[in-house]
Amino acid sequence: MKLIIINGPNLNLLGKREPEIYGSQTMEDFIIHLRKKFPNINLEYFQSNHEGRILDKLHEIGFSYDGIILNGGAYTHTSIAIADAISAISTPVIEVHISNVYARENFRHHSYFSAYCKGVIVGLGMKGYEWAVMDFIGK
Ligand code: DQA
Question: Which residues span the domain enclosing 88?
Answer without folding.
Answer: 2-137
